[in-house]
Amino acid sequence: MNRLIAKDLLSINAVFLRPQEPFTWASGIKSPIYCDNRLTLSAPRVRDDVENALARVVEENYPDCEVLMGTSTAGIAHAAITATILNLPMGYVRSGAKDHGRGNQIEGKLEKGQKVVVIEDLISTGGSVIEVVNALRDAGAEVLGIASIFTYGMQKGIDRLAAANVKNISLTNLDVIAEVAAEQGYIKPEDKEKLIKFRNNPSDESWIGAAE
Fold first, then answer.
1. 172 cis-preceded (ω within 30 degrees of 0)
2. CB count in 10 Å sphere of residue 179
3. Where are the beta strands (DSSP E) in 44-109?
């Protein structure tokens, strides 16, 4: 599964790889990779692969799931499509409570004690998805875990998820993307090591300008 999704994301340029011309994240970190999973929604074949894989992850890893909750905004469409496949109710969690109307942060019906799986598009340091998990727990839900499309596999994210006692299953990850990209000629074989070095320590920019 993880190689199939990696090939899919690369084929529609949902994953951009630029080891020689790094992206700059909002945090200021220089990155050789940028992932935009919103593009999967515009590619029916890839979208089918992604949503069916998410449904399989939920069925196999969270069989007691009663409700899917998407992260706002990138996870909402994926949660809706996956919920349709699984015939489950769904909703989504805002980044903060609304300042008007009923002031909801959680949209959709959620009852205390319900078993929830969070649908997320990607995980880097884990901060935003943990906020969603905490909001659901505060509302009385039992969060079984997260199903995400892609994870960078950063240690900070792994540690944060462990500290929050929340499980994540991703369809693919940076290591697999790097391997498939090198095999298929998206990057040079030596660039694979730059991607892994970035993953291991994003604050260490020594991979930039390293010998070709």
1. no
2. 16
3. 67-71, 90-93, 106-107
